[in-house]
Amino acid sequence: MKKPILIPETNDMNKYLINDAIIDYTNVEIQKLASYFLSRNLNETELVKEVYEFVRDKISHSFDIKAKIVTCSASEVLFNRHGICFAKAHLFAAILRCLQIPTGFCYQKLILDDETHPVIILHGLNAVYLKKFSKWIRLDARGNKPKVDAQFCTDTEKLAFNVRQELGETDEPTIYSCPNINVIKALKTATTVEYLYKTLPQEL
């Protein structure tokens, strides 16, 4: 499927560097982690790739490990070492924003589980602006597993999931500067990951 033409919510790049209660990169541990990546003397593209692979591979997806608690803010995700797609996207954005690399939020509408839970829900990922290429690229740090193989790529997207339009799935083209309010509400009100699984947001 052809990827959508990405549309930034704003042309003000500073909006994609904001620190707030969710993308809280003033947190000491996030700053330490960002400093570690910076110390490796990588160019911007290499830096984004390393941060992406860290969040994808070293931070577990809460559903995959059957975690109990729900994480939301970037610092919570880093402290607990797990989060669902949205939460991992918050951490990825926080680290990159701490490194002054503009990072936004993108969403897809996907079927949660074809066999056991065939409802359309939101799925979260990121868009990162690379100065070298003068463009935004989407990256999905959800975490790989059988049948999920997301990779860092600057030309052809290699996301976690292929959108199946024939089944009602859609790609939302907007690059948002802040996480979606319905997403935050779902993460903040869920008392357990099991409860969150049943109450995942369906609309932006």
Describe this structure in words.
- The protein is an alpha/beta fold and about 200 residues long.
- The chain has a single domain (about 5-200), classed as C8orf32 fold (Roll).
- Helices cover about 30% and strands about 20% of the residues.
- The chain is built from 6 helices and 7 strands.
- The protein has helices spanning about 30-40, 45-60, 75-80, 85-100, 180-190, 195-200; strands spanning about 5-10, 60, 80-85, 105-115, 115-130, 135-140, 170-175.
- A 5-stranded mixed sheet has the order 1-7-4-5-6, with helices on one face.
- Helix 1 (about 30-40) packs across helix 4 (about 85-100), helix 2 packs antiparallel against helix 4 (about 85-100) and helix 3 packs across helix 4.
- The radius of gyration is 16 Å and the shape is globular.
- The model has no long low-confidence stretch (mean pLDDT about 95).
Q: Gist?
A:
Helix content is 30%, strand content 21%.
The number of distinct structural domains comes to 1
Structural class: alpha/beta
Q: Span from first to last CA?
A: 22 Å
Q: Flag low-confidence runs.
A: none
Strand content bin: 15-25%
Average pLDDT works out at 96
Number of strands: 7
Q: Which strand order do you get reading across the main beta sheet?
A: 1-7-4-5-6
Helix and strand run: EHHEHEHEEEEHH
The CATH architecture is: Roll
Helix tally equals 6
